[in-house]
Amino acid sequence: MKSVYFLLLLFISSITIGQIQGKIIDKKGDALSFVSVYLNKTVTGTTSNDNGDYILDIKKPGKYTIVFQFIGFTTLKKEVTITKFPYILDVTLEEESVSLKEITISTKDNPANRIIRKVIASKEKNTDKYANYTAKFYSRGLIRIKDAPEKFFGQSTGDFGGGLDSTRSGITYLSETFSKITFQKKPKKFKEKIVASKVSGQDNGVSFNRAEDSNIDLYENSIEVFNDLVSPVSGNAFSYYRYKLVGTFYDKNGKLINKIKLLPKRNNDRVFQGHIYIVENDWAIYGADLITTGAQVNIPIVNTLKLKQGYNYADEIGAWVLISQSIDFDISIFGFKPSGKFSYIYSDYNFNPTFTENTFTNEVLSFEENATKKDSVFWNTLRPVPLTKEQVSDYKLKDSIKLIRKSKKYLDSLDAKGNKFGFLNPLTGYTYRDSYKNRSFSYDGPLLQAGFNTVQGFYTTLGFSYFEQLNDEGKWWNAGMDFNYAFSEKKLRPIFYFTKKWNNISKPRLTISGGIETPQFNDRDPIFKLNNTISSLFNRQNFLKIYEKTAAKVRYSEEIKNGIYFSTFLEYAKRTPLFNTTNYSFAKQDVNGFTSNNPLDPTDFTNAAFTEHNIATLNVGTTIVIGQKYLSYPDRKFNAGESKFPTISLNYIKRFGSDNSNLNSDLFIANIRQDLNAGNFGRFQYHLRAGAFLEKKDIAFMDKLQANGNQLLFPIDRDLNSFNLLEYYKYYTNDKYAEMHLEHNFRGAILGKIPLLNKLNFHLVAGGKALFMADKKPYTEYSVGLSNLGFGKWRFLRVEYVSARYGGIKERGFVFRASLF
Question: 3-state class of 529 per DSSP?
């Protein structure tokens, strides 16, 4: 009975209702993919798939003019009379013949430059014509891999969901999304409601092909989706591009189209290469065929990114609007070489929508009910681009094995392979999984958790944890214990923890923990343990200062309303001083010299910075992301990235319960931070922080307000929150304080305009920092440096020259940093 039902379903799925369909090839007989197919004088249509097949949905018989448009090929019009469906219409397109006969070339004026200047001058006029609209949006994402490695760091990579053949090649990801989009230009707002979403081999069918992420507007000065690449028609495009008019041709409506080649002034700058097509007199974009590299987008694992766009003329508004787009990519990382293509179709534009005050909210993406549960009948009547045979096979294969791969027998067989205990597992760690019951037991080995400091000597940590997922909506719990052993101290410090999370919407999370740990005196952790291990062992410099804390803690956090986050913890702790127990180092004895563990006096090896005491701490905080945009998926909420407004954090910290009342205190801390995209002029960031005690008292040193310093040449730290040349424990207060961090990365906006120097493709970075404390003189820093340093597409180094001033003393120095992205 099940097989009969399956055959019946396939038969119903194959029925075509009101469709023109066919194949598009070139004169050589090769299939042409991504050809725009639409009714004449409309902006509604479809595109051909990778095999050149297309399906154009027509509701009733009659006479129609079908237009076939593809960049680089002559636009073809076909007049047809349809009496019944399906109507088969195969076509052959001829390559476009471009000519320079009608162009008078002047040695004084590059005609391509004249055209681009007119496009730049006409951007606002052209885009104002479709300042408000609604439309239908369809996207298809496909990722395939070739010769996939069987193992990665000794672990099996599996078969990627069943999509690989005997050569370990095939489709690893296939998805489709159909949605309704709403757009407003001023102020810029975007909303998407997903009607249907499908992912091959997955139950939930949640595709991440967002319309807003794929809305690549070349009229913008920079393309944010492509890591702020400079648009060919940006306001300052002539600082990045040279242009060459390749030729002209006439489109189906007799419009003269200019084909312009992009010639980057610097190969690895944030630019495109390829061709852009411009409509004469309208000075609008007709199409684009562009390519960029990993070096240009500053993502080294990317080899190439290709962007194609097709525009159509909308009679009702007299404008050229985007109707099709594709993004192709290929990547190389750790022996894996995936490639993919994401195709997008825009249709059914309404350029005169009625918006109300409730049209746009902070919810920028939502799903219709049962959007992820549409059947094949629904998709076959909706899909504007037919599936290829390969894609049909992938859906059938993965849907057929989906139930099998969820079975206990199959999951147990996978676990049996993955749960094998290896020779190095005692050192590196091990995880035992029960995938059918969504639970695992993990052992964290000592090798990757080892380090050195002068208090503990060499130390390492062993960990054991248990995790269980309770549902697919984000409910889980885990518990575990870590055992830290210090070889010089000969002391074991255990910590236990239990955490539970209830959902992926408001993300409520409760953690109960307790044990013995060794935190830094500055609870902002200014020194990374790896930095301290390296500087201690190789340079005999121990900047890390720690104490012992035996504590029990309860922590809770939740997003109580969109953009408003609440967090709190209550802790009771015994704090104990620690002293150096070793002066071991790989460096010679006469190199530098270890300091004491007393941050107040590095030369005092016998007295501590505080006396042992017990104290309770209550921390109540909130973070407010003003105007936070968010995405509502069926089982979770994602908060969007950048905001036009700053993020504000407020904390009240009360310390109480100490036998010495002087140690009790009340503290308020506020943070304001923002990351602003300045388009072609780079990126500006700032972080402001201030704090004040209600009463100035002789509190313990670790409870005082402290700034993050740096005394390393090559630190691994949070550079925007740290001072470059400030001693780690030089500035602290039990009164009031404020700090400011400003930074602007100009990218190519300045150095890109300097001859010869612009060939290096370095980015200028400038910053300023200031620190104010009620009982100390101000500390200020100014810095200038270069980022995007490196070789080829691997350009992740940064160097800064810093000038600092405090109390009439000046200090200067260089700081190096690294960032992969």
Answer: helix
Pairing between β-strand 87-88 and β-strand 19-26 as defined by DSSP bridges: parallel
- CA 157 to chain centroid, in Å, comes to 24
Distance CA 141, CA 631 (A): 19
Amino acid identity of residue 335, one-letter, is G
Give the DSSP per-residue string, 146-186. SS--SEETTEE-TTGGGTB-TTS-EEEEEEEEEEEEEEETT
Q: What single-letter amino acid sits at 623?
A: T
Contact 649, 623 (CB under 8 A): yes
With beta carbons less than 8 A apart as the criterion, state whether 761 and 268 touch.
yes
- How distant, in Å, are the alpha carbons of 17, 136, 372, 452, 729 from that of 378? 12, 16, 12, 62, 66
What distance in Å separates the CA atoms of residue 176 and residue 692, rounded to the nearest whole number? 53
* Beta-ladder partners of 92: 25
In whole angstroms, what is the distance from residue 286 CA to residue 272 CA?
17
CB 364 within 8 A of CB 192: yes
3 sits in the region (left: phi over 0; alpha: psi -120 to 50; else beta) called alpha
Tell me the three state secondary structure of residue 599.
Answer: coil
Helix axes 389-405, 408-418, angle to 10 degrees: 90
Rounded to 5, what percent of the chain is helix, strand, coil? 15, 45, 40
- The per-residue pLDDT for 378 is 85
Is residue 731 within 8 A of residue 771, CB to CB? The reply is yes
| Residue 38 in tokens | 């639409």
pLDDT tens figures, 641-695: 767 889 999 999 999 999 999 999 999 999 999 998 887 788 899 999 999 999 9
Q: What tokens appear for 530 in the block?
A: 């790896």
Q: Are strands 151-152 and 241-250 parallel, antiparallel or unpaired?
A: unpaired
End-to-end Cα spacing for the chain = 55
CB-based contact 35:287 (threshold 8 Å): no
Instruction: State which residues of the chain have pLDDT below 50.
Output: 1-17, 104-105, 107, 821
Q: For residues 742 and 673, give the distance between their C-alpha atoms in angstroms, rounded to a whole number.
A: 10
Distance CA 740, CA 487 (A): 41
Q: Which of 236, 239, 213 is nearest to 226 (CA)?
A: 213
Distance CA 433, CA 412 (A): 9
Enter the DSSP assignment of 472. Answer: T
Can you give the pLDDT at residue 108?
A: 62
Q: Give bridge partners of residue 366 from the DSSP assignment.
A: 193
Residue 399, helix vs strand vs coil = helix
Count CB atoms within 10 A of the CB of residue 33: 21
- pLDDT tens, position by position, 799-813: 999 999 998 899 999
Q: Taking the alpha carbons of 582, 583, 584, 585 in that order, is the dihedral positive or negative?
A: positive
In the numeric block, the tokens 């970075």 are attached to 765
Return d(Cα 484, Cα 487) in angstroms, integer: 10
CA distances from 127 to 214, 322, 483, 800 (A): 18, 11, 62, 41
Task: Give residue 101's pLDDT.
Answer: 57
